[in-house]
Each structure stands twice: as C-alpha cells, then as structure tokens.
Specification:
The protein is α+β, with helices and mostly antiparallel strands and 355 residues long. It folds into 2 domains: 215 residues, no CATH class; 120 residues, no CATH class. It is built from 11 helices and 8 strands. It has an 8-stranded antiparallel sheet. The structure holds zinc ion (ZN). The site of zinc ion has 8 residues, from loops.
Length: 355
Amino acid sequence: MPELILILISFAFGILCIGHLRRYDVHEREPLFAMAAVTIWGGFVSIVCSLFLYRIIQENGVSLTDGFPFSYLYVGYVEELAKLLALVSCWPIIRREMDEPTDGLIYMACVALGFSLIENYFYALANPGINLLIAIRLVICTPMHIAFSMFMGLAFFWAVRRKGGWGLLFGAYIIAGIYHALYDTFVSYPLLLPGLYLILHSAYAWMYRLLGYTAARSPFRQTLTQWITSETAPAIEPGYPCLECTNNAPKPTYRRGRIRIQRCEECGSYLCSPHALYQLVHHYGSLFGSLRRRIHHLPHQGKHTRTLITGNRIDRRKHVACFQLDEFNEVLEATSRELAEKMERKWWFPAGNIK
Ligand SMILES: [Zn+2]
C-alpha cells in the first residue's frame, strides 16, 4: 500500500511538472491532447526500447550490477537513447505541432515524463516497503528525467526542422547520458546525497536557459508594446493606485493569461502587481527560473522601493509595480536578445541559419 501512495505522489508530481513546463511555452502553447498522447505513447515506447537495449547488453555478457560506476553509465546511455528513439516514434503525432524550438523541449519533456512514471511504477513494485531513499528517488527522478533530456529535444527540433545540427544531437545525447549516470550514482548512496544537489542545480539552470533561449527565438514572439497596442478596447476596471501621480480612478486593463496590467490615464504610466511584473519578465524578457537575484534597491527612493532588472519600480508596501511602456519594453527586448545571442556565441552552437 505505501508503494501505491508513492506511485500516486510521483504521478501527481509528474503532472505538476508538465503543467509547470507548459507555462514556459509562452508564445504558442502546445495542445494538451498532443502532450498527453506523447507522454503515454512516448513513455511506452521508451520503456520498451530500454528493455530491449538492456537485453542486448546483457546478451553480450555485460552484467549491469557489476562494476560501479560503469553500470550507471550504461543505464544513463541506454535510457537516454530510449527516450530519444521514443521522441522520434512520436513524430506522426507532433509533426504538425513542431513549429517553434520550444516544442522540441516540451515534447521531449513529455516523453521523459511518461518514461519516468512507468519506471517509477516498476521501481516501487520491485522495492516493497517504504524508505527515504526510495521516496526521494520517486519524487525527484521525474523532473530530473525531464531536465536531462531536454537538450536532446532542442537538438532534435533543429535537426528535423532546419536540417542541421545532427552532431549537436549526438553531443546532447552524450551529455544527457553523463548527467543521468551521475544522478543515478548520487541517488544510490546516501552518503553522496549532497552531490545530488549540485546535479539538480546545474540541470535546472541549464533547463531554464534552454527554455529562455527558445522563448527568445520563438517565431510567435510578440513584444510587450506590440501586445498592449494590439488591444484596441481594454476594459475599464478599478485597480492599482498610480505610483507616479496617485491617480486612484478605474483604469484601462490589459489581460494576457495571468498577467494583468493597467494604464494610468492621467500620466500614462503602466501599473501591475509585483507578481505580474515577474510574469512580464518571463514572458517578454525570456528570463526563466528564479528572478530574486535580479531585484535591486533603488537609490534615493525609500526603503520600500525595488526594481526588477531595470526600467520599473516596485513599491513593496503598496504591492504595486510601475513602468513606462517604451522604456520597459526596451529593457525586456534587450534582455531577451542578449540571452539568445549569448547562446548563439557558444562554440558548439550549430552554424548556419538555425534559430
Ligand atoms: Zn499616473
């Protein structure tokens, strides 16, 4: 029974992971139906492929329980190859949907989710009873499976859509295998658990950078100004007091998903909650992950005032953020552009017109 609870927790956690990832697919969301189909089919195919590959290895006389840490390398490479093959097998489902680089990441993540959920199920059955190591493993291995293989998803997108970067796909596979092996090693020995933190941290940082890069280069990307000016008849709603001129009247209100912005008709400033400001930086600045490091004090503005990156003002007491559209739009564009260019300057980045 405890195994069943763990499996359910890991399943719920996996669903949360995908929901979370989907929020990063900011410019053109993938249909949930396709994501679910890839999770189920991709998960099934990847498990079958990995069982098949394990069998080939074992028939060639290699025993996977021997030879720590090399057995983990086998496991890493077998499972990552299985996930990549499963993504290829999903091509008929995703062919029409793969129209921006983020989609490569998203569908690879779905395959990894499916794989991890099925693997967890068998893992829990094979290890009856409950202990800390198994609990940790079941909960964190799903996001890890997702994070390790995402780079392969992007390389796959480049390879099939831009007909280039096959070498990069191979490189992404090599990296995924190494990460996977390190993770398996660290998670198997309680004494090595602190090392797990380093793996988690760097895998997540890399995943957010990839998500940011693909968002910055999405062909569906709009600027903040393009969005605001495309709204011809914003509803007038009661809302934030203006930080510039203290105007308290109801204001034109712009909504996109969970972002809600108001325009002060007295002074032309734009207002939103600090949370919405974060969302704007994710969405238009292509900057994902924690933004805490990017909050700064503003000199001479009182101790309750902060800024996120620059080009805005957050009043933490009133819980309101304020910016000038053109100025902040330029900050977001520059942030997004720099992020993309930094990635494209990397030595391994495929040459040619791969965007
Ligand atoms: Zn105002």
